[in-house]
């Protein structure tokens, strides 16, 4: 093996899944977003080593990978808290008290309205419309939507996170 | 916890039945008969003519004729042709596609099969917004079921027709709902829209001829193939046939989704179906079609919800996201939320949009906190006017229109802030 190669950081199973995605597209690069989702399931962010390895897989430059990572809200280039909790603060949710909910949760977690808890457990923030407008206010915790919230029910959800 | 529509028609008739989301449950209710009919009894040209005759308009916001769009796909090319299903629903106020994905996955796939036959597409890419992880999982299960049953793959229903469906998840960018932004994202790039022409029918996904349709647009197709153009035209208006899904949110007693004919008066949707605003309050304004569409004041709710009528009121149906605001609402705060959103989501490619969205937000925030001047209101209109029609895609227009709408109908709210040097609406929602 080439001495100059960076150590392999993408797991074998993730690599298999990435290859399966590539096979679905007429052009390798079509599978770049799916690959970034797969990588994010295993690690909190795309670090330079991962970017180099993805660039090799997709036959592009590492900066092309990072350019894509930085464009999208759901990809990260820095270490992340274990959970992401995002309160929707777009119009329908704000009309139903989302801003107060976000402030209440920030006070409860003792963080800013966009910040990580001291133990690295939760990142709290706001997000634009998540498509749950009739069930406001709501928040997205990782992959799960929690709807028709009030401060107490939202606190209980966050307190239950490991 | 996803609730099914409060009012249903043909699209959502079975959405309360959990097994409608499974292939056997869907087939028990007549599912996939339309795809079989299209593939075995109709030529591609006949399917296109039928959808044209039915007058199905795209349900993703622009309202373009679906049949006409399909007819733009080049015939007799040896290039592979693709369909793209736009499931990047991100328009604030809109949540219909999420429910169509969650509850009607096979209905969507059947619509895709009919469209694939009509356009000669060999593959469909379904682009689901990144935050819709659950709907993506649900649809992915439907796709697996369809492959197992031979409804997707190399020999669809034994007809020799090949069709594959690939699901890709977005990753959190509103602009990827714009069709060429979506195509860039699908190709593994930043979701920055392309200049048109060339249109996707010539140069689409991966540079190949492509038709992009919204989730709801595809979902209507099996019903048209099964029941015919005249049946479809028995719903809605002459120019805007069929039903659509109105998502009602904000200050109403019964928020939710309502499947109603196009042309249903806005007042009927808001007051009757959604129960109006809670007692003791009155309506101040209603955004009729998602946040990009200009607001209407309470005295214009008589408008029938179809583009030919909404255009006369200087607004549009958009995605059918109806947002209701009561009499306590500060419209300058509404402007703060609207302009923040577009500032945040501008892809940054075009100067008018990147800078314009920032300035609109800066100025309305200044007015909201009581530091604005009367010239600020004119500057807002000037900036918004200079963003319209100047950029690669319609995002800048979509950012300008709601500000123009708010100033058209609620200029007094802005002027009071300037005069009183504070927000006079003490009971309004919090910013």
How would you sum up this structure, described in words?
The complex is a heterodimer of chains A (162) and B (431). Chain A has helices at 12-22, 32-42, 48-58, 62-71, 91-95, 98-109, 151-159, and strands at residues 83-88, 115-116, 122-127, 139-141, 144-146. Chain A is of the alpha+beta class and 162 residues long. Chain A folds into two domains: 12-71, Arc Repressor Mutant, subunit A (Orthogonal Bundle), CATH 1.10.10.1590; 83-159, Glutaredoxin, CATH 3.40.30. Chain A has a five-stranded mixed sheet with strand order 2-3-1-4-5, with helices on one face. In chain A, helix 1 packs antiparallel against helix 2 and helix 3 crosses helix 4 (62-71). The longest helix of chain A has 12 residues, at 98-109. Chain A is elongated and about 50 Å long. In chain A, 40% of the residues are buried. In chain B, helix 5 (96-103) packs parallel to helix 7 (133-148) and helix 14 (351-368) runs antiparallel to helix 15. Chain B contains 16 helices and nine strands. The longest helix of chain B has 26 residues, at 395-420. Chain B starts with 22 loop residues before the first helix and ends in an 11-residue tail after the last helix. Chain B is α/β, with parallel strands linked by helices and 431 residues long. Chain B folds into three domains: 18-171 and 211-233, Rossmann fold (3-Layer(aba) Sandwich), CATH 3.40.50.11540; 243-326, Ubiquitin-like (UB roll), CATH 3.10.20; 331-420, de novo design (two linked rop proteins) (Up-down Bundle), CATH 1.20.1440.230. In chain B, strand 5 (243-250) and strand 6 form a beta hairpin. Chains A and B meet through helix 2, helix 4 and helix 5 of A and strand 3, strand 5, strand 9 and helix 13 of B.
């Amino acid at each position: 093996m080439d001495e100059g190669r960076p150590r392999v950081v993408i797991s074998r199973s993730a690599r298999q899944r990435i290859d399966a995605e590539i096979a679905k597209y007429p052009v390798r690069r079509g599978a770049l977003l799916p690959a970034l989702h797969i990588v994010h399931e295993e690690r909190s962010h795309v670090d330079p080593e991962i970017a180099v390895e993805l660039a090799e897989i997709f036959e592009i430059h590492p900066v092309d990978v990072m350019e894509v990572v930085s464009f999208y809200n759901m990809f990260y280039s820095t270490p992340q808290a274990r959970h992401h909790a995002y309160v929707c603060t777009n119009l329908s949710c704000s009309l139903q008290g989302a801003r107060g909910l976000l402030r209440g949760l920030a006070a409860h977690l003792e963080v800013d309205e966009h910040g990580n808890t001291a133990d690295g457990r939760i990142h709290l923030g706001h997000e634009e419309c998540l498509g749950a407008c009739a069930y406001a206010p709501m928040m997205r915790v990782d992959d799960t939507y929690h709807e028709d919230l009030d401060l107490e029910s939202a606190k209980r959800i966050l307190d239950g996170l490991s | 916890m996803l609730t099914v529509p409060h009012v249903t028609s043909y699209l959502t008739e079975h959405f309360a039945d959990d097994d409608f989301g499974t292939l056997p449950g869907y087939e028990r209710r007549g599912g996939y008969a339309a795809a079989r009919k299209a593939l075995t009894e109709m030529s591609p040209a006949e399917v296109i003519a039928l959808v044209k005759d039915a007058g199905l308009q795209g349900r993703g916001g622009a309202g373009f004729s679906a049949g006409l769009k399909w007819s733009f796909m080049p015939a007799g090319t040896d290039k592979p042709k693709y369909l793209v299903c736009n499931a990047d629903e991100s328009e604030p106020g809109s949540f219909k596609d999420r429910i169509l994905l969650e509850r009607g996955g096979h209905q969507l796939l059947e619509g895709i099969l009919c469209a694939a036959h009509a356009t000669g597409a060999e593959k469909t890419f379904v682009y689901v917004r990144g935050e819709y992880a659950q709907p993506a999982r649900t649809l992915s299960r439907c796709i697996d079921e369809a492959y197992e049953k031979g409804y997707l793959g190399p020999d669809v229903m034994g007809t020799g027709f090949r069709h594959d469906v690939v699901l890709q998840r977005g990753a959190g960018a509103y602009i990827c709902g714009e069709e060429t932004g979506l195509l860039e994202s699908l190709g593994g790039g930043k979701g920055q829209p392309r200049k048109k022409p060339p249109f996707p029918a010539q140069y689409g996904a991966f540079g190949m001829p492509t038709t992009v349709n919204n989730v709801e647009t595809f979902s209507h197709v099996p019903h048209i193939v099964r029941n015919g153009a005249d049946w479809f035209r028995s719903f809605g208006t002459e120019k805007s046939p069929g039903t659509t899904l109105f998502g009602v949110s904000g200050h109403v007693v019964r928020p939710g989704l309502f499947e109603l004919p196009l042309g249903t008066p806005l007042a009927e949707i808001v007051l009757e179906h959604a129960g109006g605003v809670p007692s003791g309050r009155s309506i101040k304004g209603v955004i009729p079609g998602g946040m990009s569409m200009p607001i209407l004041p309470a005295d214009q709710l008589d408008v029938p919800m179809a583009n030919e009528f909404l255009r006369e009121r200087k607004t549009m149906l958009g995605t059918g996201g109806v947002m209701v605001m009561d009499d306590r609402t500060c419209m300058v705060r509404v402007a703060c939320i609207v302009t923040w959103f577009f500032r945040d989501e501008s892809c940054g490619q075009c100067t008018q949009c990147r800078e314009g969205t920032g300035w609109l937000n800066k100025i309305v925030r200044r007015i909201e906190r009581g530091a604005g001047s009367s010239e600020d209101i004119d500057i807002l209109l000037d900036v918004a006017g200079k963003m319209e029609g100047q950029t690669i895609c319609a995002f800048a227009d979509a950012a300008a229109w709601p500000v123009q709408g708010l100033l058209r109908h609620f200029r007094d709210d802005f002027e009071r802030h300037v005069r009183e040097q504070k927000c006079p609406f003490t009971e309004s929602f919090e910013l």
